[in-house]
Design goal:
The protein is mostly beta strands and 263 residues long. 2% of the residues lie in helices and 51% in strands.
């Protein structure tokens, strides 16, 4: 294996041996999330075993460190925790266990919503260089590749990874659709809501009567009141939606321009 291209929901481990118990240090590489590595460096044509696991950067994200620029070469994955702003610390020994050497990090791959603090000294000694994961720029949620060349190149001896929660507002983008036949589409405005509520109401009414006129039973007169209760369950529902249907007629000859829609 010389290069790889990973999907957004996949975490991986590459092992030089087919025995997982030896898959650490220089005999391993790991990473996660949408991205690619054009050259795995010294591990070229050495991978004997690949392990894939599910990956969700929103729930539990990780930062991948690379020995070379442009997110290439040997690399290792360092997870954050699921708790907001809780730092997961990796001293130099933990870095080496994931195949990352001392003072060798040149670039890194980081998802949106995560931050990493890089330290020049083992044991998280200052100075520190912080990288914040930028917003995704495409629908594949490709992790940003951040170069450390000229700023913190080959200086990392320990690091801390943490979830910042800087997810921000929802963002969208425009995409062009073009065709040579009529185009029908629906635009929704505002919100689309459907909800229901249940209410229980009780009514209590009394009916009473007395029995007199000398009605007795074993020497005791009978006089009694009776009552009954009515329960009624009511369910209320409502929905709200505003939408407009559009139709753009278009019939063109083969090879000519069609109708376009940006959405």
């Amino acid at each position: 294996m010389t290069s790889w291209w990973c999907g957004k929901s996949v975490a991986y481990e590459f092992c030089n041996d087919d025995d997982y118990s030896t898959c650490y240090g220089d005999k391993s590489m790991s990473g996660a999330g949408s991205g690619r590595n054009p050259d795995v460096g010294d591990n070229n044509d050495k991978v004997s075993m690949i392990m894939l696991n599910p990956y969700d950067p929103v729930r539990l994200g990780g930062v991948t460190l690379f020995h070379n620029d442009e997110c290439s070469g040997k690399h290792g994955l360092f997870y954050a925790t699921e708790r907001l702003l809780e730092k997961k610390s990796y001293p130099l020994s933990a870095m080496k266990g994931r195949g990352i050497h001392n003072d060798a990090v040149t670039s890194l791959m980081i998802p949106y919503g995560l931050s990493v603090d890089l330290y020049t000294g083992d044991g998280f000694a200052s100075p520190v260089y912080t990288v914040v994961g930028p917003i995704y720029s495409d629908p594949t949620m490709r992790h940003a590749c951040v170069s450390l060349a000229g700023s913190f190149n080959d200086k990392t001896s320990s690091l801390e990874v943490y979830k910042t929660g800087q997810l921000g507002n929802a963002k969208g983008y425009w995409r062009s659709y073009t065709q040579t036949e009529s185009l029908n589409f629906t635009v929704h405005y505002g919100i689309d809501v459907s909800t229901s509520a249940s209410t229980s109401m009780d009514y209590s009414e009394s009916l009473s009567y007395e029995m007199h006129a000398g009605i007795e039973f074993m020497g005791e007169s009978i006089s009694e009141s009776y009552s009954y209760e009515i329960s009624e369950d009511i369910e209320k529902t409502y929905s709200y939606d505003i939408s407009v249907d559009y139709s753009i007629p278009c019939t063109v000859k083969e090879g000519e321009a069609g109708v376009g829609l940006y959405q």
